[in-house]
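ugh ok so i messed up the first submission bc i forgot one of the chains. this is the corrected input, ALL of the components this time, i swear. 834 residues overall. if the numbers dont match what u have on ur side tell me asap before i send this to the collaborators (the ones from the other lab, u know who)
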Amino acid sequence: MDLIETALAILASGLRLAIPLLCACLAGLYSERSGVVDIGLEGKMLAAAFGATVAALSTGSAYAGLAVGMATAVVLALIHGYAAITQRGNQIVSGMAINMLAAGLTALLGNVWYREGGRTPSLEGAARFNPITLPGTETLADVPVLGPFWRLVVSGHPLPVYLALAAVPLTWFLLYRTRWGLRLRAVGENPAAVDTAGISVPRIRYSAMLATGVLCGLGGTYLAVAQAASFLPHITAGKGFIALAALIFAKWRPVQALGACLLFGLLDAVAIRLQGVALPGIGQVPVQAIQALPYVLTVILLAGFVGRAIPPKAIGVPYVKER
Amino acid sequence: MTDQGTAAPAIMLTGIDKRFGTVHANKAIDLVVAKGTIHGIIGENGAGKSTLMSILYGFYEADSGTIAVNGRTVRIRSSADAIALGIGMVHQHFMLVETMTVAENVLLGAEGSGLIAARLDHARAEIARLGRDYGLIVDPDAVVGELSVGLQQRVEIIKALYRGAEILILDEPTGVLTPAEATQLFEVLGELRRQGRTILIITHKLKEIMAITDAVSVMRRGAMVAHRTTAETSVAELAELMVGRAMTQPERPASAAPGQPLLVVAGLSVRDSRGVTRVTDVSFAVSAGEIVGIAGVSGNGQSELVEAIAGIIRPSAGTISVAGHRLTNADDAASLRGYGLAHVPEDRHRMGLVTAFPAWENILLGHHAEARYGTGLLIDRAATLTDTAGRMNAFDVRPDNPHLKMANFSGGNQQKLVIAREIGAAPQVLIVAQPTRGVDIGAIAFIHDQLLAMKAAGKAILLVSVELDEIFALSDRIAVMCGGRLVGIRDTNATDQNEIGLMMAGVERAA
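and heres the new structure output, hopefully the right one now
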């Protein structure tokens, strides 16, 4: 029973760790499916985390935090869009600029406003997204396995977790069942085909950037306003980049993206659990080695087990009508 | 549709003018296309045909001039405007999303509602109906990237018809088709005309113009130079109008007694980077003073065969000998050059030139180590420039400015520079792939003359081309490839385009 509890606890922790990855991964999916490379996911999440925390602190409402977090990321996404779509600039440079801008600006403003070395005060009460207990937890409490599973893994997460999970089927539906999705998929493959079909290429790409911003905002808000309950400098810790790896792993498909992010989240959770534990035959493994495990596995998985991941054909190429 | 005689013309262009910077692409173009006819527009590359059609399809807007569709003056500011007016276009480079199905491609931009499931069913039904009505049969659920080029073209036509196109523009539609596929296309176009639709076809192939059009307009250097009724003109007249002077067909010199075999290929097989066998057991020889042409629809192993002979990819089986040297795995393009082999690659932009470099640096490519371009670490710039200028002169590359960036030359002049570099190295064996692709008629004649001169000088030439006319005009013998195999080799004098066309489709007729 104890073993099951432990396993379920790791599973639940893996799920929570996967959520920011999932948000960034889906955000990247919209952007890259439209043909815009976005290495600025990290920066957008970081800025969103900061914006959300500031708003939650000053209004006392986590929902206001979420709104401001999303708005912050959307603004940055549109800046990236302006550089990449309208000005046809280099998308890597623009994405990197957003990362640096976000890292510098959040640390600077945090320090100036709160004088705690870039941290913000803690969020409490309604200013934070608190765990939601789903109906059925009581009823199932005594059922073996299913009871703890419901209590630990399914129930007991803050709202952004459920929003992020809901974004997976929503993204699938938008992508494969709607006109907008058809056009989005087409514009990332052959924008000229979209243009000659009488559809505006920039309009579709900008709408994709909007979706990217909203999801980065959700991810950043979750990190600060739900998980950490305050903003810390570099709170995103490279998740925006790992998400890009997960996106390739998932071959730019939403359901597979969920799988990839859950895998990475689970690896993270296992790594945390293994810290300080003496493994049979090996002894105590240095913390750093354990912490590196998810990244090492990421490299191995990406190098060997993904097979050919063919990106959208027009990715990274600004659309210019040929002369 | 019944009063065709009195109806307003489907398209009337008046005084269309368009400049791109200093380039005057269209000069005061007038054009009248009658309803329910097939109207051809011919002209050399760069004559302004594609620009004119792009203006009609809303890709560009004209600087001045008016467009009238069905007698009504209109402004076409985008492709969406053109589609709304019933104009559809089949582009030379297909505007298809290769990862999507036929139905999804047809639906794109004409979805009609936010959710697409029901609309996809509608598109499937429509594709089936168009298949029945016009012989445009294609599986609506096939992924476009997996279809042959001919079928992809059908999808493009279906796309236009699905949008209700009454006027269909086709840009160089037969460039990528087999003779049989081209014939099918013409049948479809004929059927469309019977049902009252108007077709505008851009091509540089005069035979096609003669075969299917009702009227033809000729463009030269951005201007419309003549309008003719097809029945009242001839290939010779059209060619002359296109080029602006009388054309003489180069006489293929009688084959001299072939000399020593200089290029011998035996049992050659080639796999591509994905491990797919592209060339299977190909054997042939090219002798001194001989041109052997390789005919075939593009994508049947010709590119891989050429790359294997040129030392770019290694064959998986078989042997190649160049001027008596049997090639080994240690040989590469540089050592082959030492044996006397020169290669004019099929795609000059991808393999023949660095378009961001000036002409003189392109002349150096592959020959930079030769003493005439300088010894030691440094390039002798003055000597290279003199050499480049001399070659540009000899090979009629215009403008003859060695400092001009390669990208700023026209296709024909780029190709002439590649040929100047390769023939200038005085090779024993010359491999030329698609020597006149995207090259205007004047330059074609010049390039053909150069190849014939090489032959007269006793060199061995392997010519790979998808243009049957070119193969027949130059080759002493014609080898046909289909599906990676050599279907057969014929003496040019003992065969005809029908037989070669059948062989290209994989039919080996019992001799």
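quick check: Chain A touches chain B at residues 177-183, 185-186, 189-190, 192-199, 313, 321, 323 (CB under 8 Å). that seems consistent at least. The beta strands of chain A are 278-279, 283-284.
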